[in-house]
Amino acid sequence: MYLDEKDNRPEELKTLRPNGFTEETVIDDFPVRNRKFILHVRRRRWLDDNGHSIVLNVYQLTADGTRLSEEFASFLKRSSSIITR
Q1: What is the pLDDT of residue 85?
Q2: Distance CA 6, CA 2 (A)
Q3: Is there a contact between 48 and 58 (Cβ–Cβ < 8 Å)?
Q4: Quick one: pLDDT at residue 46?
Q5: Residue 51, CB-side half-sphere exposure with 13 Å CA sphere
Q6: From residue 27, how far is each of 20, 59, 68 by CA, in Å?
Q7: CA dist., res. 11 & res. 7, Å (int)
Q8: Structure confidence at residue 59 as a pLDDT band (50, 70, 90)
Q9: Is 32 helix (H, G, I), strand (E, B) or coil?
Q10: Which backbone phi and psi does 84 adopt, to 5 degrees?
């Protein structure tokens, strides 16, 4: 599944000009109906009045050191501690 960030700028940032999208972040998440679920997320990139490229809305989408969502990584961590006991 592919998700692109919506243009939801507040009124005071409407002077920024769209400049495409950032490179996608790939997230492996919980299986949906017994199928592997991979999410590709791209954030918007903007240009200011000087023509410098800036990125807004930086989100932590994956757990550090993984390509998994925070919730799925947490679930796996809990599950592995239950199994190893």
Answers
A1: 42
A2: 13
A3: no
A4: 86
A5: 0
A6: 21, 13, 5
A7: 11
A8: low
A9: strand
A10: -80, -5
When pLDDT is averaged across residues 33-37 and rounded to a whole number, the result is 75
Q: What local confidence, expressed as pLDDT, does residue 50 receive?
A: 83
Q: Which residues contact 46 (CB under 8 A, 6 or more apart)?
A: 13, 16, 17, 18, 19, 53, 54, 55, 56
H-only helix segments in 1-85: 70-84
**What is the distance of C-alpha 5 from the center of its chain?**
9
> Which residue in this structure is represented by tokens 């954030």?
43
| b/e 9-18 (16+ beta carbons within 10 angstroms → b) | eeeeeeebee
Tokens 């919730």 sit on residue: 71
Q: How confident is the model at residue 77 (pLDDT cuts 50, 70, 90)?
A: confident
